[in-house]
Structures are given as structure tokens and as C-alpha cells.
Write a structure and sequence with these properties.
The protein contains 14 helices and 19 strands. The protein is an alpha+beta fold.
């Protein structure tokens, strides 16, 4: 075969900074509604956690301010002779923060660890891929079938120090459901722009600038002090008083007040995250319901009834105050051009009641709904609204709204997918529909496969899986989009999920701070500059 190369040269990203003394190193104080529980980079596949840990750890690739792929710990990569072999050329002279050199051994180790039991990022590398050290700075990834987007999520597959992990009994990843902390959950050792000086889960995490970082810094920070502040009112007050420099998110009801303040503003923009509702469709009997001996959600009429019971426009106007985009699909329209061909089923509570009656539930039934209360914009309020809407069709939903640490420990794979009805948000790490079709909608019935790892409800349609596999290898964009459309049509007919909306970005930022706001909602201090 002819040699096909896709070598990428390193990119220098420029930033417009404030006029300031070059030596003016600053302290950044950042508050988020959610906590940073674990420093283990494979515990939780969640954007906010990735952003926190991305100050310390790095991937083989990176994404720039426009989310374009650029070199990271790998200087270049190629498919030398066959499309099933990827070769990555590693950056020389990079050291971990404890002084250990970065080599191919760390990549091979990290590839094994990220796929191990307990990792929430198992889909980053196919389970049957072989990762081979060619030499100290060259690694081959050998696949069983072509995968042109293999590396698209590797900006958040962070490379760990093999020697450090082995010395500290941290070879195994820390599961999200772990009840006691591991060494890797309380300590970190990466190659990134900052080091972790101290970490108190639920209280405070302090990051210090890494003086030996291999990149040229585009920030002027000496330290980052991260504090979780769950209370909306307290978080906003801290920003307006100057106690913190940046908060995420700004509660929708406080946006105008922050914008009217003399020392802060709200940075707004569209986000790629889709918020949706999922249902347990795999168990013979729901874990949390008064229906015994069967599972109502296995009946497509029940799933359709739930979909039609939700007034998405009311959620948009009342709960989200206009700062959401109702969605017919499980992916943002910016990421799939044929999304315009889909429309949401109309809000129809009377039709929903009829469907429940036809399915054998004329008086509805009772079910528990799991929801985070500190992860997405107005997440608990959305769930409360949904509970009220379901009540109109006779369904009593008992809302269990919890902080994200407890929520994810319960509903994700390490916790045994313990949920019957839930709210979740998803931003495809590849910025591509195949990620949604594989991770969220793929059948999870093969224990040897990572397919469906984030499919908490266990929806399964083998026809759609077959199409998703074709999507992965199809190079023709037009044909690929038509395949994706076909897959989403199957899911829509099945009422597999209930997509709600794409939420809007809303960061509260001090006017002394210059930041980069990407559509993936990752708060990344290594691109921030602060005035004195």
C-alpha cells in the first residue's frame, strides 16, 4: 500500500493580553457550582473534571481555542502503511512534575490503565487495540479495523507517569463509586502548566504554576485557588464582591445583575452539550418503581408518552429564561448538518395519557428520577419541572437530586447503572455524531466492548449499532451524514431518549480577567491573564 501520512506540525496559539508587567504573576480565584472530588484522570468522564485536571495533565493531542486538534505530548502522528496502524511520535525533553522523563512506557501504561476496570474513560481506546512501544519516543496503536477518528478524544485522555503510579500503588484507576480515596485521587503528577499543591475534596484545591512546563505559558498566573460554591446566591456574591475572579455557571436569573455590576460581566455563548432524559430499558423490573414483575420503559408507548408529556417550550421560557435551544436530537445542530431534517414530537399530554392507557397503565405508575443538582444549568429545576409535567399524565416521579459526586457514583457503570429514570448532559468529545451513537446509544451487552459505556438506561438496537460501525469507517462526508441520519431516525422511532435542549454558556468574569471561552464549556486558566 502507498504510504499515507497525516503529520501535524506544532502550532503556536497567540493571545491578546492586557498591557502589564511581564513579571506580574497573579492569583486566580475560581468557583464552580460542583466539586472536584478525584484527581485521578480516569475516574470521571466529565467536562468540568477534564478542565480542572487539564491544568496538570496533558494528552497526546490538544485542542486549541477553536477546538481544532493540535499536537500535545505527541509532536506528530501518521498511518504509515495500513489504515489500522497509527504511529505517534512523542515529544522529547518533557518531564513530569516530579522530574521523571516522559517516554513511550508512560503511553503504553496509560493505554492499559484507561481501559482497566474502574475507569470511566474506557471508550478512549478500543479494547482490542494493541499499543506497542517502537522505541522510547514512538508508539504504535494497532487496530482490528480502521478508525479515522481514533485520536479525536485524546486531548482528555491524560498521560500518567508509569513509574510514579507503580511506586504509589496507583496502577488501577479509581472508580467513581469508590468509598475511600486512593493515592491518585488525592495527588497528581502530570506534565501540564500547573501542579497541585493541595487538594481538599469539597473544600479547596490549590494549583501552582509549573516552572518547568515544556510550552511557553500564555497565562500570567502564579497560582489557582479553586473553591466549590454550590449556593447560587453565595457564588454570585463572591464574584460581585471580588472574592473570586471567575464563576461557572452564572444562574440565569442573575445574568442581568452581574452585567450591571461595575467590576464583572457575563460571557455568554452557545454550548455543544445536549441535556436529555434517559430511561432504564434493560432490566426485567425497574429498581425504583411500584410496578413489579415488569419494566414499563421496555414498552415504546410508555417512552413516547413520557416524551410527549414534556413541555419543552415551558422549560425554555420558565426554567431556562430563554437561554436554551430545544433539541430534537441527541447532538447539537452545530455538529450535524442534517439535524434540520428532524423535529420534536409535539407536546401532547392527552395523547400521552392515551398511550399509557394502551400500554396498560391507565392510572400511571410511580418511579424515582435521578438528577444532579450542581452539574448543569438549572439541572434540579429542570427535573422539578419534568416531575410536574409527568404528574399531569398520572406518573408520580420521586425526585432524587444529589450533588454530582454522589449522583455519578450511583448511575454510572462503576456504580452499576443504578437508575430507572435520569437526567444527563453530553458533549461529544470528538465533536462528532459517532461518539453519541457509540457511547450513549450503543448496546452495552458485550462485556468485552466499551460500546454503550455512558448508556445508563441500556437502550439497544443492533441495527443502529451496525450503522454506527459503518459511520466510523466511512470517508465520504455526504454518505457518512446520511448514515448518521439513518441511525438517528431509528433512535427517534424507538423513542430511545428524550433530548431536551442545548444549554447556553454563562460565565461570570471579573473585568480584570482575560479568558478564552470555548463551546465545550471547559474553563481553562492556562489561557487566562489577570490585571493587577
Amino acid at each position: 500500500m502507498s504510504v499515507r501520512k497525516t503529520l501535524l506540525a506544532a502550532t503556536t496559539v497567540s493571545i491578546v493580553a492586557f498591557a502589564m508587567s511581564p513579571a506580574s504573576a497573579q492569583t486566580l480565584r475560581y468557583a464552580n457550582q460542583g466539586d472536584l472530588k478525584s484527581l485521578d484522570p480516569y475516574t470521571l468522564n466529565e467536562t468540568t473534571t477534564h478542565a480542572h485536571l487539564g491544568q496538570v495533565y496533558e494528552g497526546l493531542i490538544a485542542r486549541d481555542k477553536d477546538l481544532k486538534i493540535i499536537p500535545g505530548l505527541a509532536e506528530s502522528w501518521e498511518t504509515p502503511e495500513e489504515p489500522t496502524r497509527w504511529r505517534f511520535h512523542l515529544r522529547k525533553g518533557v518531564k513530569f512534575q516530579n522530574g521523571d522523563p516522559f517516554t513511550a512506557d508512560d503511553v503504553v501504561f496509560s493505554a492499559d490503565r484507561v481501559r482497566a476496570k474502574g475507569s470511566n474513560l474506557q471508550t478512549r481506546i478500543p479494547p482490542d487495540a494493541k499499543v506497542v512501544k517502537v522505541d522510547d519516543y514512538t508508539v504504535d496503536f494497532i487496530l482490528t479495523s480502521p478508525n479515522p477518528i481514533l485520536h479525536y478524544q485524546w486531548d482528555t485522555w491524560y498521560i500518567m507517569d508509569k513509574k510514579w503510579a507503580e511506586a504509589n500503588n496507583a496502577v488501577a484507576p479509581t472508580p467513581a463509586a469508590a468509598t475511600s480515596p486512593s493515592f491518585a485521587s488525592l495527588n497528581a503528577n502530570g506534565t501540564g502548566a500547573f501542579t497541585v499543591e493541595s487538594h481538599q475534596p469539597g473544600v479547596k484545591t490549590v494549583f501552582k504554576a509549573n516552572p518547568n512546563w515544556w510550552r511557553k505559558p500564555e497565562h500570567n498566573l502564579k497560582e489557582i485557588i479553586f473553591t466549590p460554591i454550590g449556593s447560587d446566591a453565595t457564588r454570585v456574591a463572591a464574584l460581585l464582591s471580588g472574592e473570586v475572579d471567575i464563576i461557572e455557571p452564572v444562574p440565569i436569573q442573575d445574568i442581568a445583575r452581574v452585567d450591571a455590576s461595575p467590576n464583572a460581566q457575563v460571557l455568554k455563548g452557545p454550548e455543544l452539550r445536549t441535556i436529555f432524559i434517559g430511561m432504564d430499558q434493560t432490566r426485567d423490573e425497574l429498581l425504583y418503581s411500584n410496578v413489579k414483575g415488569k419494566n414499563p420503559f421496555r414498552d415504546v408507548r410508555v417512552r413516547e408518552a413520557f416524551f410527549k408529556a414534556i413541555d419543552i417550550e415551558l422549560i425554555k421560557t420558565r426554567v431556562m429564561r430563554g437561554l436554551s435551544t430545544p433539541s430534537a436530537l441527541m447532538i447539537a445542530p452545530q455538529l450535524f448538518p442534517l439535524s434540520k431534517d428532524f423535529t420534536r414530537p409535539k407536546f401532547d399530554p392527552e395523547g400521552a395519557k392515551k398511550l399509557l392507557t394502551e400500554a396498560g397503565y391507565p392510572d400511571g405508575f410511580e418511579v424515582t428520577m435521578d438528577c444532579p443538582n450542581d452539574r448543569y444549568v438549572n439541572d434540579a429545576a429542570i427535573c422539578q419541572a419534568v416531575v410536574g409535567m409527568l404528574a399531569r399524565i398520572g406518573v408520580k416521579s420521586n425526585l432524587l437530586a444529589q450533588p454530582k459526586a454522589q449522583y455519578f457514583a450511583k448511575v454510572l457503570k462503576p456504580g452499576g447503572y443504578q437508575t430507572s429514570l435520569y437526567l444527563l448532559g453530553w458533549t461529544p468529545g470528538t465533536s462528532d455524531s459517532q461518539n453519541v451513537l457509540y457511547d450513549i446509544m450503543g448496546c452495552r451487552d458485550d462485556p468485552k466492548s466499551a460500546r454503550g459505556e455512558a448508556n445508563l438506561g441500556g437502550y439497544c438496537n443492533k441495527e443502529m449499532d451496525a450503522i454506527a460501525d459503518k459511520v466510523l469507517v466511512e470517508a465520504d462526508t455526504t454518505k457518512r451524514d446520511l448514515l448518521i441520519k439513518q441511525a438517528f431516525e431509528i433512535a427517534a422511532k424507538d423513542f430511545a431518549y428524550i433530548p431536551l435542549h442545548q444549554q447556553a454558556l454563562a460565565w461570570g468574569v471579573s473585568k480584570k480577567l482575560k479568558v478564552v471561552q470555548r463551546a465545550d464549556n471547559a474553563v481553562l486558566p492556562y489561557w487566562m491573564t489577570k490585571q493587577e
